[in-house]
Amino acid sequence: MKTIHISLFCLLIVATTLYAGEAPEQVQNIRGKVLDAITTQPLPGAHVRLLGETAIATTTDLNGLFVLRAVQAGRQSIEVSYVGYAPQIVRNLLVTGGKEVVVEVLLHEAPVSLGEITVSSAKPKEQTINDMALVSARAFTVEETERFAGSLGDPARMVANYAGVMTQNDSRNDIIIRGNSPSGVLWRMEGIEIPNPNHFGSLGTTGGPVSMVNNNLLMNSDFLTGAFPAEYGNALAGVFDLNLRSGNPAKNEFLGQIGFNGFELGAEGPVFGTGNGQKASYLANFRYSTLELMNELGFDVGTGSAVPRYKDLTFVMDVPGTKYGRFKVIGLWGQSLIRLGRDLSDTAANQYNFRGTATDFGSGLGVVGLTHTWFPSAKTRLRSTLSWQRTYSEAILDSVVTDAFKPFYRGYEKESKLSFNTQLRGKLGANASYLAGLNVDVFGLDYVDSVFSKRYQQFITRSDVQGRMMLYRAYGQLHQNFGQRLSANAGMNFQYAAINQQLVAEPRIGLNYRLNETAVLTAGAGLHSQLQPRSVYFSQAYLPQSGTYIRTNEDLKLTRSLHQVIGFQQLLGEGFRFKTEAYYQYLFDAPVKPDFPEFSMLNFGDQFGTPRIDSLVNKGKGQNYGLELTVEKFLSKGWYMLFTASVFDSKYTGYDGIWRNTAFNGNYVFNLLGGYELKLNEKLTLTLDGKFVWAGGRRTVPVDFVASAQKGEEVRDWSRAYEEKYDDYIRSDFRIGLKSNGKKLWQEWAIDLQNITGNRSIFMEAYDPRKNELYYVYQQGFVPMFLYRVRF
Question: Is-above-0.70 flag for pTM?
Answer without folding.
Answer: yes
